[in-house]
Amino acid sequence: MLQTYLSQVWTIFSKDLRAELRTKEALNASLAFSVVILLLLSFAFEASEQSTSISGGLLWLAYSFAGALALNRSFARELQNDCLDALIASPAPSSALFLGKALANYALLLVVELIALGVFIIFYDAHLSGNFLPLFGVMLLATWAMVVIGTLFSALTVNLHMRELMLPVLVYPLLIPALMAAMLLTSTLLSGEAITGDNWIWVRVLVAFDIVFTALGVVFIDTVLVG
Amino acid sequence: MEATGNALDVNGVWKYFGDFPALNNVSFHVAPGSVVALLGRNGAGKTTLLRILAGLSQPSQGTVKVHGAEARKEVTRRRIGVLGHSISIYDELSAHENLLMFGRLYGIKQPAKRADEMLEKVGLGRVRDGLAREFSRGMRQRLAVARAFLHDPELLLLDEPFTSLDDKAIAVLQSMLAEMRQRGRTIVMSTHQLREAMELSTHIAFLQRGQIAYAGERQQEMLDDAGWLYRTYGDI
What we know:
Shape of chain B: globular
Order of helices and strands of chain B: EEEHEEHEHHHEHEHEEHH
Structural class of chain A: mainly alpha
Helix content of chain A: over 70%
Order of helices and strands of chain A: HHHHHHHH
Strand content of chain B: 25-35%
Oligomer: heterodimer
Structural class of chain B: alpha/beta
Radius of gyration of chain B: 18 Å
Strand content of chain A: under 5%
Largest sheet of chain B: 6 strands, mixed
Distance between the termini of chain A: 25 Å
Largest sheet of chain A: none
């Protein structure tokens, strides 16, 4: 039973990634967008001690804008030839479709974020000074938060005429706690400090956010897709 | 609901879009092995009904049972094949990858082998690794037919199956439908092509403004004169 479920999740995950790697629509758009935003922000905020304190905010601003572009494509790509109907009609549970798509988006966004992080380090003369692994951990947690909400709302808005506009309008307000946590933790790590007792609350916020919204997505996706 | 032995039980189905009832207390039953032509004018509710039968949409009221189980249950969806208006094929994947993906979702044993068999059957064996977006319209339609029949469904739901198919795709579909009939599979198809519908079907369900105006066996009058049904039952 579980094996069948995991196989269906894997099938959707690999299908989405394969399709994306062949077209590179979402990858190119989100990567180009995040790099341009980071470039523009680097002119607005010159590298200094002050800019280090807001670096987490700048980085996650770029990540969240780039994320919206990629996530918009997630269910929209199923509209071509009405593929979404064939997926919903298949015996794969809607939650397997949701998790497969979320994981594909997750992999895609993490690649974009890692490349953008490299660009950020160059533009802002940032030094991770041994904090790469904790920062990557924050990226894993916060990106999953972004992906799980974005994928759910991508399904919700897929049939709307103005879905490109509606997705960020619906997703960003919900993401505020997760983005706030990610920004504060990233700023701390980029300024060379470690995550200490005071900051662990933000890690817990991210973990709780991920668990709650993953559960909500899994439970409600069938209602979102079928009604 | 008690087991009826029917392939399909539609009981008191209503579907509202806002305040508008697209389906109005629709009830009918389909015995296994029947071929049902779902007829009606544009906007009569044929596609809405087929979407509910396929589990793609929920009725506002009423129930749909396929072999005694709810349409949205996983075990039921495994038994249903759907061929809609659109081809439901991924342009970025090859013909083989498309069928392999759906084969895995349906839990088919040896999905790669089954995908190859189906590609041969619809005449696409030689282009199995070609991307669907590079196919001609007719080839894409045949691939869609292969997808719908891939898991050997017990109940096949077809929405305007012959519309916009090329000659070869029509021949492929007709031969696969004939094979399904011989094997006692149940087929429900909506169509505007009255002559073909009457020839293929054993039963007729005639929808008029969201209501069932006629549901029953195909009668000789319908074969003799395709317009008879509309003239006789078309004024509710």
